[in-house]
Amino acid sequence: MTTRQGPRAGGPGKFGQGKFGYGKPGQGRPSHGKVGQGRSGAGRSGGEAGGDGDGPAVLYGWHPVSEALRNPNRELRRLLATENAALRLAEEVGELRISPEIVKPGAITGLLGPDAVHQGLYLEAEPLAGPAFDTLPDDAVLLALDQITDPHNVGAIVRTAAAFGVTAIVTTARHSPTVTGVLAKSASGGLEHVPFVVVRNLAEALIELGERGFTRVGLDSEAPETLDAVGPRAPLVVVLGAEGKGLRQRTRECCDVMARIPFRGAIQSLNVSNAAAITLYALMPRA
After folding, report:
1. Minimal CA–CA distance to 177: which of 156, 205, 204?
2. Which residues, in sequence order, are CB contacts of 174 under 8 Å at separation 6+?
3. Where is the region Disordered (predicted)?
4. Beta 257-260 vs 44-46: how paired, if at all?
5. pTM of the entire structure?
6. What is the CA radius of gyration of the chain?
7. Is 89 helix (H, G, I), strand (E, B) or coil?
8. So what CATH class is 129-283?
């Protein structure tokens, strides 16, 4: 297999709505952090994607709240729990670092809205500080998100990343959802295990990673290479594109290789989080 190295590698292709399958077209620790100035001007700092960082992270539901309570690095502000949920926490989590306020389910629903599946738990906490871009280890496996804005998708990607032991998720300060609420619920506790690294310019961050020896693999439904042809790599950056418009041209130019998932069935597409899972399984170094 021949891959083009350098910041202009990776040819044109679409990676948008209906093309998250990357076949033929068919359809931490996060924290709100201020972005600093880096060597290439990419700007980086550990931080939660989206938002201005002034308010607390709001977590609800069993997995997001219980994982946060187990995480000694998560500073807690306020915990609301129904009587049954508080009993379950005592049984499964043990001694809590914060005393819950016992409330009726409607009190939590009133804070979150009728569509939130809160399971009797609501937590306000401080965002978690993530690592600085320049401190990422040389053998890291990273996910880079190019303007993925749907909090359900980003949350599901975080859950996938936590399952595969991804080192960190690289995203931009703008054009990304706040790491709270719906995203945290979709991540199902994964926010406590996969840090975010927030950069101002994704392309420049990818260039710097390439200079450090990372293989940068962008996903594209019309890419000439399949994941099987690429094979496991380390250090590795898997670059995922946005809903609707896909990887931006500049982002594609900063990838060493564009790859696709080879499908055999009638459906030639997947949700981006499912595609991320398949890609990580195919490209993660074997233990």
Report:
1. 156
2. none
3. 1-58
4. unpaired
5. 0.80
6. 19
7. helix
8. alpha beta
**Is 113 exposed, middle or buried, given 0-12, 13-18 or 19+ CB atoms closer than 10 A?**
exposed
Token pair belonging to 100: 């819950």
Q: E-strand spans in the chain?
A: 44-46, 57-60, 76-81, 101-102, 121-125, 141-146, 168-172, 196-199, 215-219, 225-226, 236-241, 257-260
Coil vs helix vs strand at 257: strand
pLDDT tens track of the chain, all 287 residues? 333 333 333 333 333 333 333 333 333 333 333 323 333 345 444 444 334 456 789 999 999 999 999 999 999 999 999 999 999 999 999 999 999 999 999 999 999 999 999 999 999 999 988 899 999 999 999 999 999 989 999 999 999 999 999 999 999 988 777 777 899 999 999 999 999 999 999 999 999 999 999 999 999 888 889 999 999 989 999 999 976 677 899 999 999 999 999 988 888 778 899 999 999 999 998 76
87, 185, 187, 242 from 269: Cα distances, Å: 43, 24, 22, 14
Beta bridge partners of 199: 44, 172
Strands 121-125 and 76-81, by their bridges, are: antiparallel
Alpha helices in 15-72 (DSSP H): 62-70
DSSP 125: E
How many angstroms separate the CA atoms of 41 and 64, rounded?
Answer: 35
List all residues 6 or more positions away from 83 whose beta carbon is below 8 Å from its beta carbon.
102
Encoding tokens for residue 89?
């926490």
Domain boundary assignment for the chain = 57-125, 129-283
Omega of the bond prior to 177 within 30 degrees of 0, cis?
A: no
